[in-house]
Amino acid sequence: MLLTAGHTVLSTTARQGDLISALQFPQTPLGVLLTWTALDGDVTVDAALIWVDPACVSADILGIGLPSIQASLQPQVGDAVRIFSSTSSPRQMTIDSVLQDVPILAHGPDWSAAITYRGQILCSPGISHPGDSGAVAVDAQNRVLGMVVAGSEDTGITVVTPISAILQNSAWHGGELEILDSVPPGSTVPPFAQSQRERDPAVDLSSLPPPKQLVAQTIIDAFANAGFGVIQQVAALANAVAESDLQTTARSHPPEDSVGLFQLNRTGGAGKGYTVAQLQDPGTNIGIAIDAMSKIRAFRSASFLDDAVAVFVRAFERPQNAELEISRRQKIARTFCSNAD
């Protein structure tokens, strides 16, 4: 489940099961609306739970990696707070007061209303931006402190709902939420995503000689086991073909010194800190690529093969002539998945 500020996703006609998309990719659903807190009466929590497709999300927080699964339940005045959103870089604030009631003019997808939020944490300066509602707030130990629900530079404050109020809210029908630092293996996929997987194109490796088919299947399986869809699997495979021709021991000439299936650069790239032998191990080499691409939301949520290939090239491989390489690798990808788009 993904937690966000309720007012950001709740229209006046909101229904359980509504498709929810990320701000950056409005045409690509990442989950469905599951449940939410009421925004009338005494509002202590403005939150909604999204049943997300595991392939579209990561537990990593941009700027710090994985958060602590421990919650910060007793924030104090003067404590440092950092907020992290998908639309901007990390920012730091200081807690001015706790358990405060604050009137806010909240804006939903198709409505506006004056709401008094009860028992909130007020921070300064007011550095939250449009799109920050729902952003996670952590303390100096990277423990989750709460969720941003309002604020601006004009008001001089940022309003954060305490995580304790969120985890134990009555809207969860007697349940209590838990902070996770990873997507649990075997997570149930929302129906829309399951339907998409059933429509996923088949992968055809017949154009490769048998020894290379084994290597290609290893890449496909590794990305599939990491939760990536067929489009992402094939995009990764196409890049490996372009980089190393699926030669696990491939190594570039100095001074670059790039090694293995994805030609990981040991002098300043993803291969830095690894030995040649380590990078020539397919599991290690593929694992480094998976770890890097798991953090790239545009890759995880790509709906078209050409888009996935382009993101992989720009975000991970970064060749000198990126546009030319993107075109070349898109053609390679289509040989394995001709009906992807």
TrEMBL record:
SUPFAM superfamilies: Trypsin-like serine proteases (SSF50494). InterPro entries: Peptidase_S1_PA (IPR009003), Phage_lysozyme2 (IPR041219). It comes from Paraburkholderia terrae. Residues 216-337 form the Phage tail lysozyme domain. This is Phage tail lysozyme domain-containing protein. Coiled coil: none annotated. Residues 186-206 are annotated as: Disordered. Pfam families: Phage_lysozyme2.
